[in-house]
Write a structure and sequence with these properties.
The structure holds two protein chains of two kinds. Chain A is mainly α. Chain A contains nine helices and no strands. In chain B, helix 5 packs across helix 10. Classes of the chains: A mainly alpha, B alpha+beta.
Chain lengths: ~180, ~325
């Protein structure tokens, strides 16, 4: 995917060409699901968030100032939608549900659970790059296209995220 | 023995991949449209709200165009043929004043090479001042065609070349150090090779709605003028180039092309094109008026044949658009 293509597709979508919008969505939908999942930690909710984000993006498409940056723009919308959903879910949850103890069965499960905890403890921005990288095996270039960041910045964030995860797991007594 | 950090990272990568990896979920427009009917209607209607206007530089637009494989067809279908048609206006028993088409035709056929320069103005509003004013240079020979577009201060923006013997189209973007090169499909190349003055005449004038213009002083000469409307439609029809493909790039609305001929030499001295361009890729999806005047004609000039199939500079990168329609 390239920004030039996005530019063309956005302009065509604005000219009553739904198929172009579909192509745009097809490009970014998996990434948006990953972005939303990194916030919601629930795949099904993440799909809902991504779909809602694309609906919002559709409504706002004529206001998009830089069509070539559709990806970062849609990702920002998706982040906001997912955060709203997370807030809503927290309000609906009973306090007991949040405090439910984790069950740890066996060494492999321990490691997996602690990894999940480590991911939950990461700041949103770092968790997002981890999800994007490992969800659909995106390349740095593809991630840069979605996040509107340079590959160096992506690399830096990924390193920091992994360092934190590794440190968290060691603190919990889990060897990598 | 303590584990090396690199091994740690590798193992962590494996763990993360195992935990997080999912097959990409496909986007289903039909389902999405059912769940978001209002948005689907917006898309189908082309949005009720006015589309945001943006100033998009021609260079950027052209960069987009030439990254698409559509250029293989449309670039040839429009740019080259319009350019060729300026040289070969056709012929028939039309006798305006004392100049016959046949005379013009014969005079043009005797030309082996030509260098034509002029200006290309793009208007994005009703202003008298063009939004972009560009310089153009065209070279013609039996080996091919070159079209160079310059900024007003003489900086080369785009060089388009077509090499007739091999059907090779090359576009160079010096500002970006990029190039695009392709060979037209054999059937299109063959059709282009067969573009004879007579064929062009059939396409342009067979319907008979050409017109002669009142004599006008052009470059100090009382010139004879011929005018033909909807030039591109006739050419694309004649060449059997898909109009849909052409419109994707350059959707020309009503247009008129005038050729002014020196009655003494029977040779064209000025070609004027003016037309509306509907929202399309070239215009950044805005309406535009295109006005081109080719007013300096040098005939039988010495041209370096290598220009029609230029070598790609080593530091240029190829423009690629993977997955383009």
């Amino acid at each position: 995917m390239t920004s030039a293509e996005d530019h063309i597709l956005v302009q065509r979508a604005l000219q009553a060409d739904p198929e172009s919008f579909s192509l745009l969505c097809g490009r970014y939908y998996p990434c948006l699901v990953a972005v939303a999942d990194s916030i919601l930690l629930d795949h099904h909710l993440a799909e809902d968030a991504a779909q809602e984000a694309l609906a919002y993006a559709c409504r706002q498409l004529p206001k998009l100032k830089e069509p070539a940056r559709f990806g970062p723009w849609a990702a920002a919308i998706c982040r906001n939608v997912a955060r709203d959903m997370r807030r809503q879910r927290r309000r609906q949850r009973t306090p007991a549900a949040d405090c439910e103890p984790q069950t740890l069965d066996g060494r492999e499960d321990d490691r997996d659970e602690v990894l999940a905890e480590a991911l939950r403890h990461l700041p949103d921005r770092l968790r997002e790059v981890i999800f994007l990288r490992f969800y659909n095996e995106l390349s740095y270039q593809q991630m840069a296209q979605v996040l509107g960041a340079t590959e160096q910045m992506i690399d830096g964030r990924l390193r920091r995220a992994k360092k934190r995860i590794a440190a968290y797991m060691r603190r919990k007594g889990i060897e990598l | 023995m303590p584990m090396k950090p690199k091994d740690d990272i590798d193992r962590l990568d494996e763990l993360l991949a195992r935990r997080l990896h999912r097959e990409p979920t496909a986007f289903d427009l039909e389902q999405w449209s059912r769940e978001h009917p209002a948005e689907a209607r917006l898309l189908r209607s082309g949005f009720a709200e006015p589309v945001c206007e943006q100033r998009i530089s021609l260079e950027r637009i052209w960069r987009c165009i030439m990254r698409s494989t559509y250029a293989k067809y449309a670039g040839i279908g429009v740019v080259l043929l319009v350019a060729l048609s300026f040289l070969f206006p056709g012929r028939h028993g039309l006798v305006p004043e004392s100049v016959a088409w046949a005379d013009v035709q014969k005079a043009v056929e005797d030309i082996h090479t030509a260098r034509v320069t002029g200006t290309r103005s793009c208007f994005f509003s009703n202003d008298e001042t063009p939004t972009y004013k560009l310089g153009v240079e065209k070279l013609f020979s039996h080996s091919g065609y070159v079209d160079r577009t310059y900024t007003e201060d003489g900086r080369l923006i785009i060089e388009f070349t077509y090499h007739l013997p091999t059907g090779t189209m090359t576009v160079l973007f010096p500002a970006y150090k990029k190039y695009y090169r392709t060979q037209v499909p054999p059937e299109v190349g063959e059709r282009i090779r067969q573009v004879t003055p007579m064929k062009l005449f059939e396409w342009l004038f067979a319907s008979g709605d050409y017109s002669k213009l009142d004599p006008r002083e052009v470059q100090g000469i009382q010139a004879v003028g011929f005018e033909v409307p909807d030039l591109v439609e006739r050419l694309t029809g004649g060449m059997q180039v898909s109009r849909k493909l052409v419109d994707f790039f350059l959707s020309l609305g009503p247009s008129r092309t005038c050729m002014w001929v020196n009655p003494q030499t029977r040779l064209p001295i000025q070609v004027e094109f003016e037309g509306k361009v509907n929202p399309c890729l070239v215009t950044g999806y805005r309406e535009m008026t295109l006005r081109e005047i080719d007013d300096r004609w040098e005939r039988d000039v010495e041209l370096d044949g290598g220009q029609f199939l230029p070598p790609i500079p080593e530091d240029y990168q190829e423009l690629v658009l993977p997955g383009a329609p």
